Amino acid sequence: MRYLSTRGGIQPIPFKDAVMMGLATDGGLLLPESYPRITPEQLNAWRRLSYPELAFEIISRFVDDIPPADLKGVIDRSYATFTHPAVTPVVRENGVYILELFHGLTLAFKDVALQFLGNMFEYILAERRQNLNIVGATSGDTGSAAIHGVRGKKGINIFILHPHGKTSPVQALQMTTVTDANVHNIAIRGTFDDCQDMVKALFNDLEFKEKYALGAVNSINWARVLAQVVYYVYAWLRVTEDGKAPVSFSVPTGNFGDIFAGYVAKRMGLPIEKLLLATNENNILTRFVNKGDYSLAGVVSTLSPSMDIQVASNFERYLFHLFGEDPARVRAAFAELKAEGRITFSNEEMALVRRDFCSVSVDQEQTLDTIGSFYKETGYLLDPHTAVGVRAALEQLPGDSLRVCLATAHPAKFGEAVEKATGVPAPVPPAIAALEGMPTRCKVMDADLAAVREFIVATIG
């Protein structure tokens, strides 16, 4: 299995090199040359597998440069840290299935991918006797999950940029209370898009990237998307009996990474009826699906901050496929976005989009209403991001279909919103309760690329 850039500027590379490269050296994102197919017979054979066993079956189809026993060891170590024996259990509530992705160390879906990526980094670095300086941007959950994936690991430093004061208090504490010597938090006076733009700029400076051995943990890293493909297959196997009932997934997303993993699963042959893309007021992706309007707008702060994004970095991977794997068309699209603040699409292209995706935007009032009514009817607490996905599923997906909603965070991570909606405090897990009063370390900076670059260089020494 070899990996290509969406912008066509690199020679095909193996999996381990793709992991270490992160963002392609031509500024594009990495994708496999082809997707291995899953047959109905294979799906049936996988029904009795545990989550780590299923992860090995899927991930190994994309990896041919790591011995199977070593790959299995990386996967087993990654999911041994989860508190639920099923890793990503599925529960049925009020006519929908909830895929709980919050049983990892930081109580968010990012743990599923970042525990795997952290262990994969450690494995490759030890083999190559190299060091790595990870640089990432977060709107909340990626940062803490990445930090907990690599804290204390030999040969790795991590620098995480987050928008100052625009994550939830719990998200901020989960990052800044990790004071291991290899962990460096940078709070940027600006938006997540400012953080993401600076990280991309650092990676696009190829001389700087090579000199300081930069590595990526954002979902620009293919290994993260690959790890997320697994839970779509796992959930599908848990909600179906004969594989004949239509299954759709509702995905609260801002950066298009989580839902792109579902798209990959569908391309592999998983029988997914629809992928429902659920956004908050930052609805560029909903406008794209429903109106063909992919135009930039300002970022609105909401109760679901991990989705407060305008420029969805993983969208480029999908565009590569939408444009018939034509790198020139991808390059032209992003040149148009830079020059005019929008990308335009043909009617034929939009027909292809709507074959796989539908979308709806859920505002803050609807989010709070959903948290409150869902709790009243079922006793089940939703965090604001999951509530966006649940509201979208109840509105958009047929009631006689199997509707799987991705629960991307534990409700206690957004306790203020949950209590406002229900009048009931979200139960606080020990992992969150322990954060209060812990020492913190964080550097607050302006959205100044030169200053961030200087800080990274000075810290590396």
TrEMBL record:
Enzyme class, first EC level, given as a word: lyase
PROSITE patterns referenced in this protein's UniProt entry, alphabetically: DEHYDRATASE_SER_THR
Pathway terms, separated by semicolons: Amino-acid biosynthesis
GO biological process terms held by the UniProt record: threonine biosynthetic process
Pfam families: THR4_C (PF24857), Thr_synth_N (PF14821)
EC number: 4.2.3.1
SUPFAM superfamilies, A to Z: Tryptophan synthase beta subunit-like PLP-dependent enzymes (SSF53686)
Family, per entry: Belongs to the threonine synthase family.
Name of the molecule in the record: Threonine synthase
Species for this entry: Oryzomonas rubra
